[in-house]
């Protein structure tokens, strides 16, 4: 049964679900053929599940609540999908020792850029899954697990996927997804691993000088794109509190801004949201000239998805379908900027982590003076989306060249003010 999942935006998971199923079947076969002792962080995860009655119940019910009808019941090998937390943990134990590559299957070569998400694909869509994945203790344990994985992804050992092999990041499939790579990014194609020192170094690569010129650098009435991204939503008259978990996923400002004292200034304002793709640039740049007023790091969830997305959709779990929802619950960074243009005044940039490591690293400091286009920070491996929030008094007009679903280059003019 072929399922083409069209809402898997950003290329973090293959659109043909058979590729994902094939990848998962291989991983399950590998951990069963060669079972390994749990690393300490995975043993801690098991202990958390088994010593907390509520969490223990959730991690049983999330698998029991997955439908037993196709396509949820079996993968292409005829074996059940992941149906218990011990198999889940065994797969986690393996994944955190690996770097992502392109999956080669009988159907196509596709990127499985959300390997943990792939393991949790079905249970994320269940009521028990939602309860578990908004639990602070569970998310703290995911964070500990991701810290271990990050140590590997930032080491030279993670470079083994930076090859020209079929599944490598400079192979045919990856090259088709990232055309003109050597002309676009700083690298050395004559050097081993193209000169990258780790997987993370490759993921956070930078543009060559002149590749993304800053548009209208001296015109403070023009707001530029903060990320290389695709427009997800533009909404106005945002409420302080709203039902962000329901269909339509309205923005809930106080939750997005973590109840910060500056939040009331934005009630009734405008939100621009755009998501980043797996094979693109992952750093953030200032959309305006101004001064950094405040930086807030918000711990949050990694795998909570909007309950409005649930079954029987053939793939309810793709976190990119819950992008409005995760602005209120996911791990994120808030950067408040006082724009030089008084018609803009205070605005906020939000970097939102979306599954996996998704570390939001801020590289600016409070009171720092910014020129339009200056780097603000970056996402380390993981899916991601971002928002720009403007106050209700800001008369902003968005560029009609970039409607919902349009790809926007870094530094492109996305709006004018005044």
From TrEMBL:
A cellular component annotation (GO) from this entry: mitochondrion
Ranges of residues in domain L-tryptophan decarboxylase PsiD-like: 39-178
Single Gene Ontology MF annotation: phosphatidylserine decarboxylase activity
Transmembrane segments: none
One Pfam family named in its UniProt record: PSDC
Gene Ontology biological-process entries: phosphatidylethanolamine biosynthetic process
Keywords, sorted A to Z: Decarboxylase, Lyase
Name of this protein: Phosphatidylserine decarboxylase-like protein
Species in which this protein is naturally found: Guyanagaster necrorhizus
């Amino acid at each position: 049964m072929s399922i083409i999942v069209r809402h898997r935006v950003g290329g973090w998971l293959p659109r043909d679900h058979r590729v994902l199923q094939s990848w998962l079947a291989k991983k399950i076969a590998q951990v069963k053929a060669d079972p390994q002792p749990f690393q300490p962080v995975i043993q801690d995860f098991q202990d958390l599940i088994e010593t907390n009655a509520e969490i223990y119940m959730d991690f049983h019910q999330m698998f029991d609540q997955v439908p037993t009808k196709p396509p949820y019941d079996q993968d292409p090998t005829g074996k059940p999908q992941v149906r218990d937390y011990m198999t889940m943990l065994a797969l986690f134990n393996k994944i955190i020792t690996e770097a992502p590559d392109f999956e080669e299957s009988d159907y196509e070569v596709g990127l499985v850029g959300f390997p943990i998400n792939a393991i949790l694909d079905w249970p994320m869509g269940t009521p028990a899954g939602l309860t578990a994945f908004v639990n602070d203790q569970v998310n703290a344990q995911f964070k500990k697990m991701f810290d271990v994985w990050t140590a590997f992804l930032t080491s030279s050992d993670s470079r083994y996927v930076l090859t020209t092999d079929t599944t490598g990041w400079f192979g045919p499939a990856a090259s088709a997804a990232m055309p003109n790579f050597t002309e676009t990014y700083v690298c050395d194609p004559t050097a081993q691993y193209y000169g990258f020192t780790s997987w993370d170094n490759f993921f956070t690569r930078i543009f060559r000088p002149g590749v993304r010129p800053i548009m209208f650098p001296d015109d403070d009435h023009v707001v530029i794109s903060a990320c290389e991204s695709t427009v997800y939503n533009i909404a106005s008259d945002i409420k302080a509190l709203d039902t962000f978990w329901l269909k339509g996923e309205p923005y809930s400002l106080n939750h997005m801004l973590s109840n910060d004292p500056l939040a009331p200034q934005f009630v009734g304002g405008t939100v621009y949201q755009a998501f980043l793709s797996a094979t693109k640039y992952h750093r953030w740049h200032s959309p305006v000239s101004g001064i950094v007023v405040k930086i807030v790091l918000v711990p949050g969830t990694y795998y909570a998805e909007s309950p409005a997305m649930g079954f029987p959709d053939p793939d309810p779990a793709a976190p990119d379908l819950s992008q409005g929802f995760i602005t209120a619950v996911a791990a994120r960074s808030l950067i408040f900027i006082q724009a030089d243009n008084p018609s803009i005044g205070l605005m906020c940039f939000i970097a939102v982590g979306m599954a996996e490591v998704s570390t939001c690293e801020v590289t600016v400091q409070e009171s720092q003076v910014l020129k339009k286009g200056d780097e603000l920070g970056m996402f380390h491996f993981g899916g991601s989306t971002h928002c720009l929030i403007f106050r209700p008094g800001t008369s902003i007009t968005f560029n009609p060249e970039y409607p919902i679903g349009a790809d926007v280059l870094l530094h492109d003019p996305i709006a004018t003010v005044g």
